[in-house]
Specification:
InterPro entries: Methyltransf_25, SAM-dependent_MTases_sf. GO terms for molecular function: methyltransferase activity. Keywords: Methyltransferase, Transferase. Helices cover 36% and strands 22% of the residues. The chain is an alpha/beta fold.
Amino acid sequence: MSLDPVESTRGLLNRPAQLRHGFLDVLGAATSAPVPTVAQHAMNSPLVARVYERLWRPTAFYLASGLTQRAEQIRAASALRLSSTHRLLDVACGPGNFTAPLAAELPEDGLAVGFDISESMLTRAVADNSGPRTCYVRGDARLLPFGDDIFDAVCCFGALYLMPEPFGVKGEMVRVLKPGGRIAILTSYAPHVAPLRQLMTASARGIGLTMFDGHEFVDLFTAAGLIVIEQQTRRAVQFVVAAKPGTSD
């Protein structure tokens, strides 16, 4: 018989958490997510949370990458090798639009933890994308509330370009990943063609988004000691997957 996902997740946390609105909150009711940019303000809006999964996210990323959300989910499950994964962390999970489908790919005793700072998004995740293998946690991705080497797979899809310290978040994702585990990110990509790159970068900066070079995350993963690094770029999006060396590597 599988354990309750909330209690299983509570056992993974390295700090106290209050159960609020169905998710575990390590920040507390009085702590608000920072909203210094237009984009970050939108991600904390209850209205955006209501339309994000079915309208905003599928439309925006199809235009940016040419891939449907279902095609993205299938690619993610394959890259993360979820059929043999027991603990998955989905960083900046939003309303759980990837957390729940990926949880369905885990073994019967698997656990998918969706992590976000937005109360609005997590409230929607609990309402729309809960299940026997899912739990949601509110916290700051710059300091993930987990010990080292906890998760078999870690991912962040469509959020790093929103964050004020994306490379620090990357470091935290690597830290909580077990040796032998896999990490995958989906984020922005600025083509090398100078005029197009300048236009995209300036437009994104205006609403608080970051356009990343094609080499930045590959270089960072390499510097962090990750191996088997693969990158796919398509239009304005890049998908990067890598593995953390195991004890036998």
